[in-house]
Amino acid sequence: MTAFSSARQVHIPLGTRSYDIAIGAGLLDDPASFGAARAGAQALIVTNTTIEPLYAERLARALAPRHSQVRLLALPDGEQHKTWASLNLIFDQLLADAADRKTTLYALGGGVVGDMAGFAAACYMRGVPFVQVPTTLLAQVDSSVGGKTAINHPLGKNMIGAFYQPLAVLCDLDVLKTLPARELSAGLAEVIKYGPIADMAFLDWIESHLDALRACDQAALAHAVERSCQIKADVVAQDEQESNLRAILNFGHTFGHAIEAGMGYGAWLHGEGVGAGMVMAAELSRELGLVDAAFVQRLSRLIERAGLSTRGAVLDMHDNAGRYLELMRVDKKAEAGEIRFVVIDGPGRAAVRPAPDALVRQVIDRCCAGLCN
Ligand code: NAD
Ligand code: GLY
């Protein structure tokens, strides 16, 4: 079934779990946007206290014709609240509302809300339908697509979660107009990511449209969201549960997750960690002889132009590289305590492989001293 008619669409082909991503302006207010959701049943909009006053009422109005009852839950805002405690607030609300198995959850927010609402949907009564309504660039190009849901643990990022696909994803580009510039930059990190791992022509396009993207130009955003979702759809369709290929989407994330956890969740935005992490992963690729220095410089320059740091955070004054290694051993790609990195295996191609600790230490030391750009 095609869920949307008046927007760009990207299809995620996953058999019975297939769905569409709609990308366009004015989708949030249009009841027709929600054709993939089951009509008649209860709905719960899960959002946060920042997004609620901006968009929750508009979404509730658009959903009213489809659902017998539309409830709202606003969680505390921030990565530091991506926890069991917040997840429990969703279960508390569902149970207090006597929500049944046909209740649909709508995740209205960035990646934090989307990951938590999706995880709650996967668990409540062993699974209820959910729809992603991403409101950050990062969520529109990445986190709302592909069915990864999770909460953080103090010892590791996104370590508790499930694969659980939404019924549909609705990317309304208009909502990006209220996104703070810092958050837009963080989202650009995930857009840039798709170039080196899969599509150098897209990297060229990002380079020439970066100013337009930072100025929230609708046509540029529409293309960036569409192309990013197409690349992600292609990867997820081949490897939904990350047995292998899907790990390439984590380019920069092994270092980036260490920065997020090591600095304390929320101090560095996820996209900021990914930005600096991509520079570190590119430098590691260069050390391994897979790309040249010009490639690292090109990527670093683009990340800088996106408004992001290219320098890694110092996590420990005494043994910074040691602290990174300790945190990276908790990464989901690690096997038997051996860290595996997403490296660039030639322009537009990524691979996952281990690297000697001594080499990784050198890369961390150099990149945290600002010598990798
Ligand atoms: P976020 O969800 O914290 O949102 C960023 C900030 O912007 C928040 O303060 C939010 O309230 C605010 N905001 C959101 N939309 C807004 C709008 N339209 N106008 C004004 N303010 C708005 O952060 P994020 O960058 O969207 O997501 C990061 C999270 O996504 C991390 O937890 C990361 O682990 C996760 N993630 C998941 C996947 C996945 O595949 N599931 C992929 C990438 C990232
Ligand atoms: N963001 C990485 C993934 O979805 O696999």
Strand order of the largest sheet: 1-2-9-6-5-3-4
Number of separate structural domains:
2
Mean of residue pLDDT?
A: 95
Low-confidence blocks of residues: 1-5
Number of extended strands: 11
Bound molecules: nicotinamide-adenine-dinucleotide, glycine
Could you please say which CATH topology of the largest domain applies here? Dehydroquinate synthase-like, alpha domain
User: What is the highest CATH level, the class of the largest domain?
Assistant: Mainly Alpha
Number of helices: 12
Helix fraction, binned, reads 40-55%
Structural class: alpha/beta
Sketch the major β-sheet.
7 strands, mixed
C-alpha termini separation: 47 Å
The helix/strand series, from N terminus to C terminus, equals EEEHEHEHEHEEEHHHHHHHEEH
| Second CATH tier, the architecture of the largest domain | Up-down Bundle
CATH homologous superfamily placement of the largest domain? Dehydroquinate synthase-like - alpha domain
Portion in beta strands:
15-25%
Radius of gyration: 20 Å
